[in-house]
């Protein structure tokens, strides 16, 4: 008996992208996909596009409490064995669902599968490969190396450990991976599954400080402390937001790094050697730092 997929797309005013998302799902060649779009009452072209694809997809367009609420609503309205959600500006790559189904059907002990992914631009062109890593729970606490649309999991995990935390606006996926990963190992298939769209006005790029702050608070609540990597990233983004200094300018970046260190000192009572070493590395080799790797994602040449 074949396992059935439930795919949920939360949406709000993404009319310029959502058709590409829908087509990437429907073109997977899987006949028994239960696909639902939970739109938050968009007033752009979204609803007209959704109407075009009835009855291939189900959809609702009504006010909700945000992205997490929309995904949870979609999960509750579906019955498939395998759950995935893909945002209304992301896409699946061809062959993804067949690869995932083969593993789930042949290895009953596997409960979560994630693949590799790309960051893509507004025209679906690849900007940069998503920095996916092999499964390691301790490492996952330090950095989110799993790309959300490249994840598929069994419905039984929802029944055991719950769905998305609707109080979170930015890191709901990361929190879910941390919650599930505490109990089950994830299976990493090194195959490109999805394209995650990055552009200046999306949530990830447009509200970096709010997103980092939410991650820091979530980790503190879940583990009682915040890993150095996340604290350093938050301090850097906060310093960048306060000063408006350009991290891609060799003259300004050193000042920005120094202000970041001051912010870390304010946030942490004890500064670990790891933080000091990392800050010195940033200072002397800014070109090799994680924030310089964002150049292409932020449209910098």
TrEMBL record:
SUPFAM superfamilies tied to this protein: Nucleotide-diphospho-sugar transferases
Keyword Calcium: no
Domain Glycosyltransferase 2-like: 6-158
Pfam families tied to this protein: Glycos_transf_2 (PF00535)
ATP-binding keyword on record: no
Annotated signal peptide: none
Alphabetical keyword list: Transferase
MF annotations from Gene Ontology: transferase activity
Descriptive protein name: Glycosyl transferase
The species this protein was found in: Nostoc cycadae WK-1
